[in-house]
Write a structure and sequence with these properties.
The complex is a heterodimer of chains A (264) and B (257). With 264 residues, chain A is mostly helical. Chain A has one domain (48-255): MetI-like fold, CATH 1.10.3720.10. Chain A has eleven helices and no strands. Chain B is α/β, with parallel strands linked by helices and 257 residues long. Chain B is globular, with a radius of gyration of 18 Å. Chain B contains seven helices and ten strands. Helix content of chain B is 35%, strand content 25%. The chains are: A mainly alpha (264), B alpha/beta (257). At the A-B interface, helix 7 and helix 8 of A face strand 6 of B. The complex binds adenosine-5'-triphosphate (ATP) and magnesium ion. Residues 16, 25, 43, 45-51, 214 of chain B line the site of adenosine-5'-triphosphate.
């Protein structure tokens, strides 16, 4: 046991998987025991079986896949809009103190505003159509993401830039051919992390005037006191988030085999 | 062909603004380095050696004075003055070979010629077998050797080296010193070489400059008349030891011992 509790000592992969699975399994057993023994009111915490039931029902009437598809599209588009804006703007902020001085106070201000405070404004501006939902996802994601991208860019070591300059590379060339390639794996990490944040704003975005979507279903289930459908929605969101995270990590390892052990 | 690489530094001065006032790093300093000369620069820690080198590289602007390279004023970094840092500064996404050929794109248009030249210098630094490895897979000393191969293959008029061998073990270090001398003799590059190691300075250089404690001035300028090519045994000879004693005396005095 002691040998697995050393500072930063890597675990064998199968042990790492086992540990994670054990914790989840233990949680599940505790949950099943608590609900099965009748110790908790199923209104507060439904039994695992009730959720499986809700899932089967959702699959049968098609609402589950429909909601998932709608939400996935919203998340993807909202996150893409944010990322497509954050990468160039963050790169400029991290490379040129000029752009950082120009934009940082603004970004820093918006960043601390609670996204729910934008719900009324977003309705005022865009009504209740799809744009209003995307704007909320964008606001929740972009202002964090752009600062993280700027940090990824600042992680490029100064000697690397200076050395390149003495070999005759100009500023623009260094930006394009040194800073960007160096920062890419770090940017991938940022994209992965911020995708998770986009998911956390889904319920908020689908709160108003949505007719479908996982977040909308969760809100609806609350109104009709159907806790198993709330939990089902939560599980699906968690699962999709986890899968996207793993895919991103695998993609990063595949695209940037050199990045292991490099500071980003 | 007329030799290029003559450096003239005139009344060069550098101050850094700190929270509690200004700090003078380099006092007014004048110096001429002939084309193809190998000059070593020694002095106590923090005396302004790196700052001086960075000004010649164009990475730092002097507050006063000016730097001329073959009559042209130095205003910023440029490919005729390559700097080799204490840290290897390699491109982590490029292989060992790629790190060398990447900078060579500035000098050689033909790809095959670039690769041939890069391979030649990687062989010289003993890394031929590692041309496909990424920097993260190399040890610190190996990375520094890639950086050396890269700078030597590039073949600038002036090579600015800031303690480039500080992180190498004794054996590799003397191999790299010999390699540097061999390439320098072939290419007749002007070298300005900062080191803490007085033996290294005398062994390599035509001329050893001793800097004072901060703000850095040149307090001694010693020609090294030892014949070339020099073997390692030269370090045991009386002339060498006399030079060494003189440099060490200066440095001890400047440190305040
Ligand atoms: N960017 C900077 N801002 C403020 N002070 C600086 C800066 N760069 C260097 N200095 C100061 O200038 C002085 C000279 O620094 P420099 O790095 O040139 O010394 P050095 O002779 O190379 O020392 P060492 O042998 O330890 O490398 C030091 O006191 C240092 O603190
Ligand atoms: Mg230094």
């Amino acid at each position: 046991m002691r040998q697995w509790l050393r500072l930063r000592r890597p675990l064998p992969p199968h042990l790492a998987t086992l540990l994670g699975a054990t914790f989840l399994g233990a949680l599940f057993v505790a949950w099943a025991a608590a609900t099965g023994s009748g110790a908790v009111n199923p209104l507060f915490l439904p039994a695992p079986g009730a959720i499986v039931h809700a899932a089967i029902e959702g699959l049968r009437d098609g609402t589950l896949l429909d909601d998932t598809r709608i939400s996935l599209i919203r998340i993807t588009v909202g996150w893409l809009l944010s990322t497509v804006a954050a990468i160039p703007i963050g790169t400029l902020m991290g490379s040129y103190p000029f752009f950082n001085a120009l934009l940082e106070p603004f970004v820093g201000f918006i960043r601390y505003l609670p996204v729910p405070a934008f719900v009324p404004l977003s309705i005022l501006w865009f009504g209740v159509d799809e744009r209003q939902k995307l704007v909320l996802l964008f606001i929740g994601t972009f202002f964090q993401e752009v600062l993280m991208i700027a940090d990824n860019v600042r992680a490029v070591p100064q000697p690397l830039l200076e050395s390149s300059a003495t070999f005759g590379f100009g500023d623009r060339e260094i930006l394009r051919r040194v800073i960007v390639p160096y920062a890419l794996p770090g940017m991938m990490d940022t994209m992965r992390i911020t995708l998770g944040w986009t998911w956390t704003y889904l319920v908020l975005a689908e709160e108003v005037a949505a007719t479908r979507g996982l977040g909308h279903t969760i809100m609806l289930a609350q109104r009709y006191l159907a806790p198993e459908r709330i939990l089902l929605g939560i599980f699906v969101i968690g699962l999709l988030g986890m899968v996207s995270d793993l895919l991103f990590q695998a993609l990063t390892r595949k695209l940037f085999p050199w990045a292991r052990g490099v500071r980003r | 062909m007329s030799k290029a690489g003559r450096l003239i530094l005139t009344s060069l001065r550098k101050r850094f603004r700190l929270a509690d006032g200004v700090m003078e790093a380099v006092a007014p300093l004048s110096l001429t380095i002939e084309a193809g000369q190998f000059v070593a620069l020694v002095g106590p820690s923090g005396c302004g050696k790196s700052t001086l080198l960075r000004m010649v590289a164009g990475l730092e602007q002097p507050d006063e004075g000016r730097i001329l390279l073959d009559g042209r004023p130095v205003t910023g970094p440029g490919p005729e003055r390559v700097m080799l840092f204490q840290s290897p500064a390699l491109y982590p996404w490029l292989t060992t070979l790629g790190n060398v050929t990447f900078v060579l794109t500035k000098r050689i248009a033909d790809r095959a010629a670039r690769e041939a030249l890069a391979r030649r210098y990687l062989r010289e630094v003993g890394l031929a077998a590692f041309e496909a490895a990424y920097p993260a897979q190399l040890s610190g000393g190996m990375q520094q050797r890639v950086a050396l191969a890269r700078a030597l293959a590039f073949g600038p008029e002036v090579l600015l080296m800031d303690e480039p061998f500080g992180a190498l073990d004794a054996q590799t270090r003397s191999l790299m010193q010999e390699l540097l001398l061999r390439v320098w003799r072939e290419n007749r590059t002007t070298v300005l070489f900062v080191t803490h190691d007085v033996d290294e300075a005398i062994f390599l250089a035509d001329r050893v400059l001793v800097m004072s404690a901060r703000p850095g001035r040149i307090i001694d300028d010693l020609p090294v008349p030892l014949p070339r090519p020099r073997s390692l045994d030269v370090q045991m000879e009386a002339d060498f030891l006399a030079l060494k004693r003189r440099v060490l005396t200066w440095i001890r005095r400047e440190i305040g011992l």
